[in-house]
Amino acid sequence: MASRPSKRRIAIIGAGFTGSVLAAxxxxxxxxxxxxxxxxxxxxxxxxxxxxxxNSAHVLNVRAYNxxxxxxxxxxFLRWLWAQDDVGSDDGGLVPPSGHAxxxxxxxxxxxxxxxxxxxxxxxxxxxxxxxxxEVVDLAQDMNDGDGGIRLRLGxxxxxxxxxxxxxxxxxxxxxxxxAEPEVLASDRFVAAPWDWQALxxxxxxxxxxxxGTGLTMVDTVLALxxxxxxxxxxxxxxxxxxxxxxxxxxxFKSFVHPQVMPHTxxxxxxxxxxxxxxxxxxxxxxxxxxxxxxxxxxxxxxNLPMEERRRFLRHARPYWEILRHRMAPEVAARIDSLVxxxxxxxxxxxxxxxxxxxxxxxxxxxxxxxxxxxxxRRIGAVINATGTECDFGRIDHPLVRSLLERGLAxxxxxxxxxxxxxDGALIGEDGAVSRRLFALGPVSxxxxxxxxxxxxxxxxxTAAARHLIGLPLGIxxxxxxxxxxxxxxx
Length: 491
Ligand SMILES: Cc1cc2nc3c(=O)[nH]c(=O)nc-3n(C[C@H](O)[C@H](O)[C@H](O)COP(=O)(O)OP(=O)(O)OC[C@H]3O[C@@H](n4cnc5c(N)ncnc54)[C@H](O)[C@@H]3O)c2cc1C
Description:
By secondary structure, the chain is an alpha/beta fold. 30% of the residues lie in helices and 20% in strands. Strands 1, 2, 3, 7, 15, 16 and 17 form a seven-stranded mixed beta sheet that branches. Residues 476-480 and 487-491 have low confidence and may be disordered. Flavin-adenine dinucleotide is lined by residues 13-19, 39-42, 48-50, 60-62, 105, 135-136, 168-171, 195, 389, 400, 442-443, 453-455, 458.
């Protein structure tokens, strides 16, 4: 039997916000000898998908005061911002002491890079960080190691043996529309990944553009088109044609939620929330104050909803939840409003029926929503798929996750929100066994929580996960798997 290395070896796969902040927490808190391996396939560490945009018009959708990487130091990001010489140069003015400002996502990426750098510089000698540029393409429980350790296969270079691995692989591009001809999807008229800035830049400035989706990703895309001087008309389409609402100032408000009397149906949550909104209005507050007062309880509310109620929420309330919860910064909303007002952007409600390749473009056929809607057909120059991140792991083409599913080390959750994990992030395998060594954090771990998308939730998860990973006992013999029943739901 191989002897256990004296250091605890932890691999973090993916160095966006989640992976980088988890690494920073491990460097800060590990009391025993620990080596942290942070592995990222992209050229830059710390930025991930959200914070790697080069466009300064792409601002955070959360105010600066709520974007600290550290839950125990809420003003950390603000102090960092104020210490920057050029703050305000691309962020629409100085950030006020209240932190009520929406700064660029690129700047936030620089902050996370500094968080990681500083944590590395301040780490005690018994904790080390190694950053590797590589894609992890496969992962297996290593029986040759004699202790059930993890072997990671990298796309380039040798494999890596560790004791624990955390998948922080983030957000995925939307799946293509099933009604599109394969020729459309294969053509350069279809932009499959809405964050592919090069593909957006290649769109003919006079081309009519159809954007699938009317959420925050559509908003990003429209701003990018505008900033590159796009002149053609832009139509954004979604089933209901709902735009994200705009942020407004909120005030502290006491939510209806009481841990001892949690609602067990979506209807009860809505009734209570409406009552809160009425109370807030009576007190002279905006509805957002009541809505935001629920934020600390999202996980508890979700946990108390039976599976059928969760399903009901996703079927009926999700589109409304998304636009009310994930809002636009006021300056962004103002630009979108003016584009709509001057006819440059049209928001349509309807269902895409077909995308057909023509010699000079793509023909889109749409059934408009509502009784008088009917069918409309347009020739367009480019289609951008901005329908939101894909979270159904049955549809995501990611070599590592595919291999985990094939090996039975992971399974999608029954509601197709991400990977099936415990509240600690431990992966649940195909047979219901809870892994003691494999974890998933960030948006892929959404199923037990519903909201595990934005920084205020992710930073808490990273803090708790770091504590958990450094506290786990690592025995010499293979750990017996725990078992979790699969909750039966009809698909
Ligand atoms: C466009 C966009 C804008 C957003 N804006 C905000 C905002 O303003 N405020 C907010 O709070 N939240 C925002 N979010 C939510 C976002 O989910 C989180 O803030 C956060 O960025 C998620 O970070 P992550 O590290 O989990 O995921 P990601 O940022 O997606 O990072 C995952 C990383 O893993 C790497 N990776 C994946 N697979 C492998 C592999 N096999 N091997 C090696 N590396 C791998 C990827 O290259 C990537 O760098 C936004 C999300 C998006 C998509």
